[in-house]
């Protein structure tokens, strides 16, 4: 009997150990991991007196609405980035593109997945080496798009994992769409109801990893109505194709060539 009891106790101990290990290594979906967002402070990294940093501070004060926020320096970000108590909104460059990136703080070596860091969303805003100034006009819209994404990602894993491209089915019915990039920064600030502007963001220098982004953004609500990331081989790739334009028309868009 004694050996059998020992075997029973060992089996029970192994089972309990496995349950504990499973609990520690439990995998949470992105939707669940974003559940604390409304109560966490977003640290907005906006250091310096560049036009972009100044605009980011100004537009954040006007547009940010879904959580508490504070501005911080790069040094403060470096000191706090491993803390799970904060989210961070920062500017970054990659592959010749400038992005606004929202991340959650944490340590990579955390055993509990809820405390691990992760990238929530990245919003392309300009060619990093050749900013046109258009990014300053669109910055408020970019912030609203990020917030709309977070709100949807908190209730939908499809959005949380699908990223910004998850919006591509939105209706364009009876909306006047301006695809000429030279008119976008004139049309957007007017904020006219039912007006949509096209935007393309591509790098100045091209290599085999280069990508560009094409978007449609509502001028009045700043809703992201179309988002596509493609390989970039040259300026032609940054134009809306005939197939894309026909797709917009099938979704009810009214294409406009002038302001």
Write the layout of secondary structure elements.
Blueprint: H1 2-24, H2 30-33, E1 41-45, H3 51-63, E2 69-72, H4 74-80, E3 86-94, E4 97-104, E5 118-127, H5 134-153, H6 157-162, E6 176-178, H7 181-187, E7 195-201, E8 211-218, E9 224-231, H8 242-250, E10 254-256
Helix pairs in contact: 3-5
Write up what this structure looks like.
The chain is of the alpha/beta class. It folds into 2 domains: 30-160; 168-256, no CATH class. The chain has 8 helices and 10 strands. A 5-stranded mixed sheet has the order 2-1-3-4-5. A 5-stranded mixed sheet has the order 9-8-7-6-10. The longest helix has 23 residues, at 2-24. The chain is globular, with a radius of gyration of 23 Å.
| Number of helical stretches of at least 4 residues | 8
Strand order of the largest sheet: 2-1-3-4-5
Largest sheet: 5 strands, mixed
Structural class: alpha/beta
As for the number of domains, it is 2
**Silhouette:** globular
Q: From the alpha carbons, calculate the radius of gyration and give it in angstroms.
A: 23 Å
Helical fraction? 25-40%
Summarize model confidence as the mean pLDDT. Answer: 89
Q: Could you tell me the strand content as a percent range?
A: 25-35%
Low-confidence stretches: 5-24
């Amino acid at each position: 009997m004694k050996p059998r009891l020992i075997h029973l106790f060992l089996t029970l101990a192994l089972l309990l150990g496995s349950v504990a290990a499973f609990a520690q290594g439990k995998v949470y979906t992105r939707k669940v991991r974003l559940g604390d967002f409304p109560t966490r402070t977003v640290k907005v990294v906006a250091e310096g007196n560049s036009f972009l940093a100044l605009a980011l501070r100004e537009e954040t004060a006007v547009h940010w609405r879904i959580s508490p926020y504070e501005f911080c320096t790069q040094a403060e970000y470096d000191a706090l980035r491993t803390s799970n108590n904060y989210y961070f909104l920062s500017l970054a460059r990659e592959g010749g593109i400038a992005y606004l990136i929202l991340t959650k703080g944490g340590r990579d070596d955390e055993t509990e997945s809820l405390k691990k860091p992760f990238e929530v969303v990245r919003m392309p805003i300009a060619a990093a080496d050749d900013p046109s100034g258009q990014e300053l006009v669109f910055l408020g819209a970019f912030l609203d798009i990020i917030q709309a994404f977070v709100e949807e990602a908190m209730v939908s894993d499809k959005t949380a994992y699908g990223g910004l491209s998850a919006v591509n089915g939105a209706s364009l019915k009876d909306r006047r769409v301006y695809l000429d990039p030279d008119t976008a920064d004139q049309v957007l600030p007017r904020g006219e109801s039912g007006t949509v502007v096209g935007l393309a963001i591509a790098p100045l220098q091209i290599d085999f990893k280069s990508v560009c982004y094409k978007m449609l953004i509502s001028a009045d609500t700043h809703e992201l109505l179309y988002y596509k990331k493609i390989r970039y081989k040259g300026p032609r790739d940054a134009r809306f194709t005939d197939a894309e334009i026909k797709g917009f028309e099938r979704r009810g868009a009214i294409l406009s060539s002038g302001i």
